[in-house]
Amino acid sequence: MESPSFLQASECAILVEFGADGQSEIRADLVQRIHRLVKLLDISPLNGIMELTPAYSSLLVQFDPGVLDNQRVTDHIRFCLEEIGNIELPPPTQMEVPVFYGGEFGPDLPYCAERLGMTVSQLVEAHCNQTYTVAFFGFLPGFAYLFGWPSKWSMPRLESPRAKVLAGSVALAGSQCGVYPIDSPGGWRILGRTPLKVIDTGRQQFSLFEIGAQIRFYPSNPTAWSK
Amino acid sequence: MVKVIDPGFLTTVQDQPRLGLARYGLSESGPMAPISFREANYLAGNNEVLPALEVTMKPPRLLFQTAARIGLAGSDFGWRLDNRSVLPGQTLEVRAGSTLQGEYCRTGLRGYIAVGGGLALTRWHRSASTNVQARMGGSILQRGDEFAIGGDSVAAVRRLTERSAMPLLNGSHKVLRVVDGAHLHLFPPEAMSLLCGMVYRVTEQSSRMALRVEGQELPCPKEPLLSCGAWNGAIQVPPSGVPQVLSVDHPATGGYPILASVIRADFEVMGQLRPREEIRFGRVSIETARQLYRRQQDWWEALG
After folding, report:
1. d(Cα B268, Cα B40) in Å, to the nearest integer?
2. Burial letters for B284-299: b for 16+ Cβ neighbours within 10 Å, e otherwise?
3. I want to staple B17 with a disulfide (CB 3.0 to 4.6 A). Which of A22, A215, B28, B147 is the partner?
4. What domains are there in chain A, each with its CATH number?
């Protein structure tokens, strides 16, 4: 596989870019390679590396410029990349996420179904039949960018975003799926809402999801859920 | 205990940055003006960084229900301890029943109130810093809040005689020094010289998330980018062409291309910029940025 570019981001950060300039498609192989690199950097830490931020095609590595310089960080990442084929990753976490589809919970479900030439129940079934991978987090704390929705069913964003999308809303944009962690403005098409708490600072791990986790959605409703 | 009689415009608890959660979408938060923050802790007699209050624009009014040694640093808010005027940059011995208050930021924008022993807050992921944007961690002060004090000052009364972070001036404009950013190669060649050749004015929309400015619009890359990790100091150029500088409560990832990055040694200066203040950006090498940062660190170690 081609080697990444090491882009100097600042005197305390390097952006390791796996994609080509101008590439805007999401590639599952790059996402997985980045997750493996995060794992390698976790298990062979270099003193002075402060923060790792994965994304679809890149990994941002921030470090303490009093301890490390760009060259040493780059060398360490290259070393890890050489080992990338040799590590066994633990099998990804599997999660099943209940969703209340349609109605007040999923105001865009009818629109999306019509656009794709499906009935509402066909769309719910299609959404539940995919396995999604958590690629990375952004936009909001705990907002997971999930890939796995087929690009042939790509969904445009709203022309003007809603002022308030409720926490737990499960939504599509392009070939991405996401779950809003808190009430916030948002322009994705909302299919439904999960009753699970996406973020909770009282939990050991505040985010319900983690990178690399595999997610399947299943239909539920408030009555079934509360039992 | 310290009781909040009036919270001021925006007063938050800040501590060391909270690292390790960017991969879950949470940026580091922590003090906007890191030198002043450390000075306040130093003056309060703390040998390590402990949770303290970050004061923005209009200060809080605090009632000390127990005696405390406090350190005041950063912006001059026209502080008064009971009826006595006090300047920042000093240690104050506060008696039980005393009130600390002020008027408005006379210089800069942000100040810090540290207490000997630190504010007793439960740290979350090793930090009591408040991410104001995400409303996570720490605390945004509200009227009536009460904070316990963590312990006693460990050091004798201290003084500051000089500062390590004086603003660099170009005429009357403050200069934020920058290094080349991750996407410089995607911009038309004139973008960097325009950024560094023009005067920008800080706007009221600035926050702990980003420094917003108005001024010369920059040419930006035509192709959209996939989102990538974002960082404190990154200068993003959205399609409007008006640059913005990400700060401590930045989104963890972003899709706008990054032209340049404000150097760490100038974060204090950036954190003290006031709305309507005029600034310039100046390009330096990575090596210079590192040396300037090291000089600040050495200055701190010499104080210690």
Report:
1. 13
2. bebeebbebbeebeee
3. B28
4. 5-82 (3.30.1360.40), 94-226 (2.40.100.10)
Task: Give me the tens of pLDDT residue by residue for chain A, a chain 227 residues long.
Answer: 678 999 999 999 999 999 887 677 888 899 999 999 999 999 989 999 999 999 999 999 999 999 999 999 999 999 999 988 887 778 899 999 999 999 999 999 999 999 999 999 999 999 999 999 999 999 899 999 999 999 999 999 998 999 999 999 999 999 999 999 999 999 999 999 999 999 999 888 999 999 999 999 999 999 988 87
Let me know: does B64 contact B79? Beta carbons within 8 Å.
no
Q: Assign domain B168-303 one CATH number from 3.10.20.740, 3.40.630.40, 3.30.230.10, 2.40.100.10.
A: 2.40.100.10
Structure token pair of residue B191: 């973008």
Chain A to chain B Cβ contacts (< 8 Å):
144
Q: What does the alpha-carbon distance between residue A180 and residue A166 come to, in Å, rounded to a whole number?
A: 7
A136 closest CB neighbour out of B181, B253, B286: B253
Amino acid (1-letter code) at residue B246: L
Indicate the residue of B124, B134, B228 with minimum beta-carbon distance to A15.
B228
DSSP 3-state assignment of B72?
Answer: strand
Q: What is the tens place of the pLDDT at every residue in B224-245? A: 888 999 999 999 999 999 999 9
Does the domain spanning B2-147 belong to CATH 3.30.70?
A: no
Residues of each domain in chain B carrying CATH 2.40.100.10? 168-303
- Cα–Cα dist A205/A91, whole Å: 19
Pull the structure tokens for residue A204: 């050991």
**Contact (CB, 8 A) for A190 and A169:** yes
Q: Quick one: which of B207, B287, B289 has its CA closest to B244?
A: B207
The interface pTM score, or ipTM, of the predicted complex is 0.95
**Binding-face residues of A in 201-220 toward B, CB within 8 A:** 201, 206-207, 210-211
pLDDT in tens, A132-180: 999 999 989 999 999 999 999 999 999 899 999 999 999 999 999 999 9
Pairing, β B173-180 against β B278-283: parallel
DSSP B26-62: ------SSHHHHHHHHHHTT-SS---EEEEESS--EE
**Cβ-based contacts of B227 with chain A (< 8 Å):** 55-56, 136, 138, 145
Q: Is the Cβ of B29 closer than 8 Å to some Cβ of chain A?
A: no
